[in-house]
Description:
Helix content: 10-25%
Number of helices: 5
Structural class: alpha+beta
Strand order of the largest sheet: 2-5-6-7-1-8-9-11-10
Distance between the termini: 30 Å
Shape: globular
Largest sheet: 9 strands, antiparallel
Radius of gyration: 17 Å
Number of domains: 1
Order of helices and strands: EHEHHEEEEEHEHEEE
Amino acid sequence: xxxxxxxxFLELSFIFNEPTKIEKVISKLNNTNxxxxxxxxxxxxxxxxxxxxxxxxxxHSVMIHRIEINLTVHTTRQRxxxxxxxxxxxxxxxxxxxxxGAKDDAPExxxxxxxxxxxxEFICLLISLYRELKFSVGxxxxxxxxxxxxxxxxxxxxxxxxxxNLNFKDNLQKFHAILIEQSLxxxxxxxxxxxxxxxxxxxxxxxx
Length: 208
């Protein structure tokens, strides 16, 4: 049985500038106000750096660096989650924690849903992760991660995935919440936001 089943998925995602060691990020996950258990071995995680060719028959194929990690996240209701780590350009790493995101529970899979009144737990987790990890931009959305904020129409890895190509204006409504460091504030449209710790800004969108 797969670790996470069904859908849709609620994605809590964030972007780092390289160089960032993914082991360091993963080791800090449990320093937040929510307990996060990692169920894969360090040896398994090392496979991220080895990568694999996009086209096995092409000796010059671009290499894909991606890994999928099983988590248990102890929100008010304990949840299984999948952490996807992807190198989307030479400068950027994408992290996305996926949860079963339907409103209704799925007892046949032992997966609690996410009610509207539970979304605040995930926004608080996003803020807590920022305080620990200091990523550039993060967000919370159904079936969408931070890669959806880039104004590009090419597959990753590609050098067009650059912070200069973030497009909040046209993509903001895809997300329940966006958290960005102050250095990127000029990219936000003229919307209401909350300043967090004098270092980042939180923009919240109306509930589902």
